[in-house]
Amino acid sequence: MSARDTFQNAEQVRRWSLGLLIVGAVVGDALYHFAPALQLPLALALLAVIGIQHGALDHILHAHMHGDPEGPLRQSFALPYLAGIGLAWAAFELAPPLMLGAFLLLSAYHFGMSHLRVDHLRHGRVQLSPAAGLALGLALIAPLVLRPDALEVLSDFGWDFGLAYRDRHLPLYVSTGVAAILTLFLHRGWRTGWLPLSGALLAWFVHDLLLAFSLYFVLGHSREAFFEEFKERQSFTHDFRRFYLRSLPLSLAFAAMAGAILWLAHDGVLRDRAALSFLLAGTLPHIAVLEGWVTARTR
After folding, report:
1. How many CA atoms within 13 Å lie on the side-chain side of 179?
2. What is the domain count for the chain?
3. pTM, to two decimals
4. pLDDT tens track for 177-189
5. Whole-number Å distance between alpha carbons of 80 and 1
6. Is residue 262 in some structural domain?
7. CA 224, CA 175: separation in Å to the nearest integer?
8. Cα angle for residues 36, 39, 18 (degrees, 5° grid)
9. Domain presence at residue 298
């Protein structure tokens, strides 16, 4: 079976997702023990090469979803999209605890539905369910956001679990157990396999928080979201190079914006929380577009 055929087969895509996530966990654990200085560069490389690209395709995917096969980058899409990032960033600064909760729920739903769509292609009889998508997403991200180092980030947004003098691994223990239960439940009804436990695998074996998230985001979510797009709306065998090149302007724009924000945070102009809020806010228009909650005129 060729690489092209593999990427058009839902069963193969899921097997590769699981295999790559396992390899990622092993690599992450090895880097912690033998080359800890490489953890951050690897995370940034994954996000820069694939993660940003995942969002930079939004104007093309939106156009395909709403009947424009060419998907030009037009002001009617780009300006509201960028304005949405700005509004979400302002909301994060005005109400950080509330916005963090909304961000985690929306992200869990988006992640879960991206995988559930692949399961739908793997097993045609399986129906898409928003509740199942949210449950799948929560099973995936809960261990990652409730590990001890992530709790410190949550506290910066006003989420204090009061565990300073207790076992700070307790939320990770609980979330891993819940993920295992949800894995069994989801597999019985939606045939999701072992995927819901991948977040727990990364949370336990990848010691750098950013690398753990990057591995899931790139090797799990982004890969399967790309597959669903190619399978349902694109031809993987036709004009892929042009499809990729048309996404580069937004890739470079988002990379420049993120780099500027991180530079300002490094120089003390922005607080670390404000910089992280910007990066989180940048994902919310992406979720709204890909889930079909908003549309922009493309003709």
Report:
1. 29
2. 1
3. 0.90
4. 999 999 999 999 8
5. 43
6. yes
7. 24
8. 120
9. no
